[in-house]
Amino acid sequence: MALSKSWRTRYLFYASLILIIPFLLSVLDLHRDGISDGPKRKIPKKSDHLILGPAAGQGLPNRLQCKGLKAVNMDDASRSRGAISGSDAVSFVTVFTVYNGSVRSEPTSLVTVGNVSYSKEERSLAILHTFVDFIQVSMPKSSVIILTDPASHFSVKRNSASLLPIEGDYSRGRLMLQRIKSYIVFLHSRLEQLQKAKSVSHYVFTDSDVAVVDDLGHIFQKYPQFHLALTFRNNKEQPLNSGFIAVRGTPDGILKAKIFLQEVLDVYVSKYMKASRMLGDQLALASVVKAHLPFVAKKFGKPEAFSSEVNGVSVLFLPCAVYNWTPPEGAGQFHGMPLDVQVVHFKGSRKRLMLESWNFYNTTSKLPDMLCLVLKSGRTKYDF
């Protein structure tokens, strides 16, 4: 009787196995087919020309209104170019380098904008030249100082621009870290020279892929107390953008800005070296500010300028929407372009748009119309 029961148990087990195996095989086949033949994620192809769409923000108050590529509620006369009073000047400071091996490019890697084809290095230099060109239009009395690797050989064919070699590690993986180090070295040298200077020169540290479209001298007049100015946005993880830092050119302003940036550098090195290639500087900026101003996040939610003291440094916070506005692919695209926009930041793949915008300006000589081109550029990833 026990033997019969054991045989029946084995019989039921094998019978069940025979029934289950085909089902398992069909599931495995379906899973394998789903992996091999299912819909694959398509990587968006970058465009090699501008694609214009509707201008965001139409009908909203205090936003640029466009009819085609004509600005209908903004003109050159309403902008404040040349508004710096007295003897104070503003100099722009940026970090730029070229890398060995990028001098010559294969024909397939050339990019054409307008009637000009660029290799990889030539593209970077064209962006740098355009950066200077926009400053010469909006702030013709300003100079541009380019901090660079002494081993980097290139020239800038603009009278208002000069190169200042500073020793350091400018490799791609350390460039953002080196940028802060170069800023600190630059401020230290200016502090030493300030005793001999007969006039004050304020400084605006920016990325080289920005277009200054209005006179920024008013910042130092309208807000006379700050030592250093940063731009903020409503972003929980990265509320501060390092692509725009203004420094008052007084001895106290330069010293306090140097102290602030040294603290940012220390936090960068101790906490964010794994993000050193891209975001480490912005994460370190946010960490320093939040450590001293724990409730500042609430103010980042409103695009209004405000001032606070950060470890003895008077910091002016300016909204990115005006002083660091990013074209349609990024922040601000759904609300359009503020009428009082001062700086346009062509981050990432928007660099083609920067060159296209400058070419368009050269045909019209109207910055407001050029801003319509930028606004209507659509959420397109271009080929830079």
UniProtKB/TrEMBL annotation:
Keyword Transmembrane helix tagged: yes
Source species, domain of life: Eukaryota
This protein's UniProt keywords: Membrane, Transmembrane, Transmembrane helix
Chain segments annotated as transmembrane: 12-31
InterPro entries according to UniProt: Nucleotide-diphossugar_trans (IPR029044)
Presence of keyword Transmembrane helix: yes
Family matches, as PANTHER family: POLYPHOSPHATIDYLINOSITOL PHOSPHATASE
Protein name from the UniProt record: Nucleotide-diphospho-sugar transferase domain-containing protein
Species lineage: Eukaryota, Viridiplantae, Streptophyta, Embryophyta, Tracheophyta
